[in-house]
Design a protein that fits this description.
Its EC number is 2.3.1.191. GO terms for molecular function: UDP-3-O-[(3R)-3-hydroxyacyl]-glucosamine N-acyltransferase activity. Residues 23-89 form the UDP-3-O-[3-hydroxymyristoyl] glucosamine N-acyltransferase non-repeat region domain. Keywords: Acyltransferase, Lipid A biosynthesis, Lipid biosynthesis, Lipid metabolism, Repeat, Transferase. By secondary structure, the chain is an alpha/beta fold.
Length: 339
Amino acid sequence: MKFTAEQIAGILDGEVVGNPKAEVFKLSKIEEGTEGSLTFLANPKYINYIYETKATITIVNHTFVPESEISTTLIKVEDAYKSFSKLLEFYNQIKLNKVGIEVPCVLSESSKHGANFYLGSFSYIGENVVIGDNVKIYPNSFVGDNVVIGDNTVIFAGAKIYSETIIGKNCTIHSGVIVGADGFGFAPNENGEYSKVPQIGNVIIEDNVDIGACTTIDRATLGSTIIRKGVKLDNQIQIAHNVEIGENTVIAAQTGVAGSTKIGKNCIIGGQVGIAGHLSIGDGVKVQAQTGIARNIKNNEVLQGSPALAYNDFNKSYVYFKKLPKIVSELEELKKKNN
């Protein structure tokens, strides 16, 4: 797929300086630019590369004025970084804009789908599923009975959506995601064995949620596990039964949230964080990587350590952690002197 400088400038509301008919068909870093590639210059530390890049077209800020001869065609915009991101989004939409139902696949007669629907081969759509407009479901995906999927949602290859799940509009669910598997519910009996506690709730995912590859979100025991609008989940995250995650909260990879914990809105949670069950995490909380949380957290706290300490307290304490051998040695010397 080729685009001219003129076409790209039209998308970005930019100005072409150079050849408006210059064509590109791939993207590159500015330092790795080759003929036929499109790149951008936003960070001043890379400015030297624009004089040597072989990229055919380069997006730059409108304030950029070359100090010597350049071979690349420029597209001048208000903000080069934002414009390049916008272009990537536009390119992605074109690349992913598949339509139609591939064969073989199973699409239950009782299911309904909207306009511009795409269903990849070897996928399964269960009974009474309702799918909105512009939904894309890639190959080898499973969608169980009574699932609802909102407009413009993309489900990538190999995702599994269990029955009764509700997914909102403009969501992205990456490969290997499992939504709606049973929560970890077992009750011990008098013989020390464990019996399964039925998990009969569901999962609700609101609008504009992104879920990274191989993340799992368990169905509720009763009621719903809820992922509120705007939440962004990284790869390989475990969300247990009856958890609720507030609007626009971001969680990095390998974090685990135990059952029935409520996380507030606008939180930022680092990688490999462990959060115990039945807790309340306030709004605007920031959690450093590898922190362990076993208590309720108030709004806007910043945490680190395991068990979690206030961030500033952790940093002060860490100074002493490093000196513990020396401190112990000094205490032993004092004890000897006193004896």
